[in-house]
Amino acid sequence: MTTKKKGKQTVAFANPPSIAGHACVVGKKEGDGPLAGSFDLIEQDDTFGEASWEKAESAMQKMALTAALDKAKQAASTMDYLFGGDLLNQCIGTGFAVRGQDIPFYGIYGACSNMAESLSLAAMMLDGGFGEWAAAVTSSHFCSAERQYRTPLEYGGQRTPTAQWTVTGAGATVLAREGDGPYVTHVTTGKIVDKGIKDANNMGGAMAPAAYQTIKAHLEDLNRKPSYYDLIVTGDLGRLGKEIVLDFFHRDGMDLANFDDCGTLVYDLENQDVHCGGSGCGCSAVVLNGYLLNGMRAGRWNKILFCGTGALLSPTSTQQGESIPCICHAVAVETKK
Amino acid sequence: MTTKKKGKQTVAFANPPSIAGHACVVGKKEGDGPLAGSFDLIEQDDTFGEASWEKAESAMQKMALTAALDKAKQAASTMDYLFGGDLLNQCIGTGFAVRGQDIPFYGIYGACSNMAESLSLAAMMLDGGFGEWAAAVTSSHFCSAERQYRTPLEYGGQRTPTAQWTVTGAGATVLAREGDGPYVTHVTTGKIVDKGIKDANNMGGAMAPAAYQTIKAHLEDLNRKPSYYDLIVTGDLGRLGKEIVLDFFHRDGMDLANFDDCGTLVYDLENQDVHCGGSGCGCSAVVLNGYLLNGMRAGRWNKILFCGTGALLSPTSTQQGESIPCICHAVAVETKK
C-alpha cells in the first residue's frame, strides 16, 4: 500500500468516507442566535429535564447521536466505532451518554478540538479498512463548563472583555465507508502550540497560533492556496482569535477572504452579551453538524476546511501558573471525492 | 480493500505494526515491588524534581517517551502520530508532556484503559497507511490521582479493603510500520459496561464485567481458545477483579490457567500495603512496557493478549450518585506476524 501521508501532518484518504448523517442539539441561548434555523432541536430548558448540568450534557449528547443515526437510517449497533469527547473532568459527559449503547467506543480528549479530533479518527478508521460505519460525537454545556473551568454560576463573576460564552450544545456525525457525500477527504493532525498565554479568559488569543500552524501545514502539505476552499472555518477562536489568525496570514502575504470562526457565527455578537463569541467543543460541533453541513447539502459551499481548536488547560494548571498548550486539527470536507 | 474487521469488535491487521521501542519510568514504591528489574528508571523522589504532583506526572511521561524513542533510535520529530492520555482533569499530564515536542498529537481518554486505547489507535494509524511511525504514552501518579479522585493525601483517610493503589509510573511504546516485532496483530475495541457498582473504592469489581465482555468478544471474533495465548493479562483489576473475571469464565466452562492482572503483578500484595493491588493507567503502562515486552523479547511469552481496563467515573459523577461505566480494550501482541 502506498502511504496516504502528504507532507508532515496531513493524510489524503484513498476512499474518502461519506457523511451519512449529522445532527445537533442546542440550548435556549443558541436557539436565540443567528443559526437557529440550522439546529435539529432547540431545548428551552437547559437542564434537558435532568437533575444536574453534567447529566443534561450527557442527555444532549445522546439526543444528537440518536438524531444523526436516524438521519443515516442506522441503528447504534451498526456502528463499528464511536469516538466521543467533552470538556468535563474525566469526560463523563460522553462516558454516561455512551453507556448502554451497543457501540465499540474510544474516548478522546482534545478540549474544544474534540469534534475535529473525533471526526478525524472516525474517518481514518473507515479509510484504514477497519469497519464500514463510524460516528463522532461532542458536547459542551455552559453551566457545567463554567463551574468546571472558572467559577460556580451562583458566584456571578464579572466577565472580562476577551471572555467567550461556552455553547450549550452537542453535535454528532455518522460516517460511512461508501455514500453520496459530503466526503471527508483530508485530515491534518495538529501539534501542540503554546505561546505563553496564561489568561484562562483569553482562549481565542491562546488558540490562534495553533490554528495558524495547522492551517498553514495543511496548505503546504497539499500545496493548496487558501482560495481552494470555499470556507476555512475555525472552531471557537471568537472575535479576537479570528483577528489574530487573519493577521498572521496577512504577515505571510495572504489575505484570507474565505475565513470565519464558529464562535463568531453561533451568536449575535452585538446583541447576545457573549463578549468575544462562542466557545466550548459544542460550538464547533453544532455549527459543523448544522449550519455548515446543511449549507454544503444545499450547495452553498463545496469545499470546507473545518479546523477544531482546543485549549489543553485545566483549572489546576492555571492555579499552578502554567500557560495554555493549544492544538488545532483540520478536516477537509468536500462534496466531491 | 477487504475489511480487516473480524466479528463485531475485532480487527486483524493486514501488516501488523512492530514494537520498535518501549520504556517505563516509576516511583519508589513500584521500585520496591517484584517487577523492579523490568523498569528503565526508578525515581526515589516522587516529585521528579517538580513543584507539583501534576508536573511530576508530566515529567515522568516525557521521560518514558524519550526513553522509548531512544530505544527505537528515533527522534520525536520522526513520529507521525502520538496518542497519549492520563487520569487528570482535562488530561494535563499528557498535554504538558507533549507541549514542545514536534509530534502531531491526539489526546485520548479511556481512564485506566489509556495504554491499550493509545496502542490500539497508534497501531490502526500505521496499518491504515497513515504513516510510518507512531507512539503511545500513558501515565498515572499516586499523589495526583488521590487528590483528583478521592481525598487530599494530607487527609490521611482510611482505605477500604477493596481499595487499590494508584501506580506512580509512565510507559511509552513506539510502533513502526516495518520491523522485527513483537507485533501488534489484533485489536478488540471495548464497549461500555456498567453493572451498577457505585463504590469508587471498588474499581476491580466495577471493571471486571467489562474485561470479561471484551476478552470473550475477542476470543469469539477470532474463534480462538484462551489457550491460544501464553498470557491473557488485564490492566488493573486487582485481586478482587481478577477473581471475578476467572469466576465469569468458570461459569462458561472455561478455566483460564494463563490469566493474570497487572495490578496484582506490580506490587507484592502481601507486604506492600496496597490492599487489592495496583491501579491507574500507569499500572498497565509500566507492566506492559517493562515486564511483559521484556519477557516477550527474552522468549518467555510469544503471544500475549493485553487488556487495558478503565473506569469512566469522575468525583462529580460519584457525588451525583451515578454508577461506574467501565470499558476494556484488548490488544494482541505476538512475536510472529
From TrEMBL, chains A, B:
Pfam families, A to Z: SpoVAD (PF07451)
Matches recorded under SUPFAM superfamilies: Thiolase-like
Signal peptide location: none
GO MF terms, alphabetically ordered: acyltransferase activity
InterPro entries per the UniProt record, alphabetical: SpoVAD, SpoVAD_sf, Thiolase-like
Protein name, per record: Stage V sporulation protein AD
Gene: spoVAD
